[in-house]
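Hello forum,

I keep getting stuck at the same step: I have a sequence, I want structure tokens, and every attempt I make locally crashes halfway through. Rather than fight my setup again tonight, could one of you with a working pipeline run this one for me? It's a single chain of 348 residues.
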Amino acid sequence: MKKLTRIFLLVAATSFFVACSDDDNGNNDTPLGVYDNGVFVLNEGISGPATASVTFISDAGLVEQNVFTNVNPSSPMTGSYLQSMFFDDTRAFIISGQANKITVVNRYTFEFIASIDTNFENPRYGAVINGKAYVTNYADYAVGTDDFLTVIDLSDYSTSKVALNNWSEKVIEENGKLYIANGYYGSGTSITVFNPANNSLGTPIELGFSPNSLEEEDGILYVIGGGKLAKINLSNNQVIGTAIAFPEDQAGAKNLTIEDDKIYYTVGTNVYVMNINATTAPTAKLFSYESTSVWAAMYGFAVNDNKIYVADGGNLTSDSAIYVYSLTGTLLDTYAAGIGANGFYFND
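Reply #2:
Ran it on my machine without issues. Output:
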């Protein structure tokens, strides 16, 4: 693993900042808490002993490890194999696939609020609509037809289940509906549309390939998988034209991210970029990084505020490395994170 530089400790003194809303003071730059204006790095960890954790990197480049346990030393633990995190206006929801639970914290102070541990079976990703959270569950990894949504009433954290009858992985919310990728390591070849207003499932949008990542921009859903990029018009849920095929050496494209009308994706340890309206895929990479990891190279990826974030999980038993690049591929910073850093969640 590369030598880590510019590592700082952010002391989490919640009394240091006064939490206040923008409406109260009219100053959009006033922090809402210690963990405003920065990025959370989710570290999935291992079990026996449990090593899952959350790292915070402030916009100023200060780093704090083990945020949850620092703030909540006597609260129930999050569980191992942290899968993902999602937000509503004031809360963060941390999904543990191993513990079949969600830990709810204040997104700005990270103070513990609740644990939710009913109606989960291998939970994966979540989104919030109109006071309810919706979380995809794999159930039996080998059987897609038993996948389901856990519906959480955020007023009291009670839960219920809705059958999806299809592989259910990543999920995003747009215009009051959920778009769920029906793909897991090559299984499933469509997008499910779920309407929370009446708990109804629309006809799956067939892609012809297994989706691994998706993102919406200006009413278009962009989906990558199977060496292709498809576009779906969300006004009618129809696939637009023919999917863009990547070159053969980019068949493993994943980590689709859209920022400022550019599409970013990764193949191995390479990062590629293309204009959002491009009709062909690029042949030249933007940049690449060196990794000795067998299973956790490019374990996490994101683009935000003119920076590219890469997480390398290394051997998945020791600290991960976080690399931050400019949009032209110049390395700006290197940080440490916990075991199995797998995702970036921006709290701005």
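The helical segments are 22-25, 67-71. If your local run keeps crashing, start a new thread with the error log.
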